[in-house]
């Protein structure tokens, strides 16, 4: 819901960082993989309840997620392969963070984590399945032309997900409630994407 407003705000700082990396021969795929590895460190950090360190890993991962695309556009290295590995690793990372909270306190967090992962399946599959069909039909993507795939909007997008992950880390004792609320938003997103995507493709 908020990505159309937040993404334009990040273009200039990401472009500046991308120019710095490009001058040092860093490739977009290298940024993607490093960001993923840094993000995955949040899993053990969360499991051992180092929430501040986990939050830093999460934020660095999200910075890298924006930076690899900016670098690809700047260097003319945009590709389907890059877009594929980027979104694939994103969903693995999101699931890992939720798993980290489940491991931190199984008695309190496991059920909420399972519900949120269930909701993530809905948002992720509806998002990616539509992108495949949109690519085959050459459907335009007016709000996010810089994306490597069709970016299907919804109530919970990248910005809302980052906000949720930050809140989880800042208020870990409220994870079941926060995760439940976010899961509800994700399920609404999945339902609206499935409905809207079906009628768009018809």
Automatic annotation (TrEMBL):
The keyword Repeat does not apply. Keywords: Membrane, Transferase, Transmembrane, Transmembrane helix. The chain crosses the membrane at residues 33-60, 81-104, 110-136, 148-168, 174-196. The keyword Heme does not apply. InterPro entries: CDP-OH_P_trans, CDP-OH_PTrfase_TM_dom, CDP_ALCOHOL_P_TRANSF_CS. Belongs to the CDP-alcohol phosphatidyltransferase class-I family. This is Phosphatidylglycerophosphate synthase. The lineage of its organism: Bacteria, Pseudomonadati, Pseudomonadota, Gammaproteobacteria, Oceanospirillales.
């Amino acid at each position: 819901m908020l990505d159309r407003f937040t993404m334009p705000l990040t273009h200039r700082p990401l472009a500046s960082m991308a120019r710095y990396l490009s001058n040092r021969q860093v490739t977009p795929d290298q940024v993607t993989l490093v960001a993923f590895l840094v993000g995955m460190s949040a899993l053990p950090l969360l499991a051992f309840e180092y929430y501040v360190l986990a939050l830093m890993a999460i934020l660095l991962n999200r910075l890298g997620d924006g930076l690899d695309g900016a670098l690809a556009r700047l260097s003319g290295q945009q590709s389907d392969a890059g877009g594929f590995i980027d979104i694939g690793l994103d969903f693995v990372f999101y699931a890992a963070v939720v798993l980290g909270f489940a491991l931190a306190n199984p008695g309190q967090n496991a059920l909420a984590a399972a519900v949120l992962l269930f909701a993530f399946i809905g948002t992720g599959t509806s998002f990616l399945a539509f992108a495949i069909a949109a690519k085959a039909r050459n459907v335009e993507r007016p709000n996010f032309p810089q994306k490597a795939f069709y970016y299907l909007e919804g109530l919970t997008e990248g910005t809302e997900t980052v906000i949720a992950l930050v809140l989880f880390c800042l208020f870990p004792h409220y994870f079941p409630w926060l995760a439940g609320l976010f899961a509800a938003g994700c399920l609404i997103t999945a339902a609206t994407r499935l409905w809207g995507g079906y009628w768009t493709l018809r």
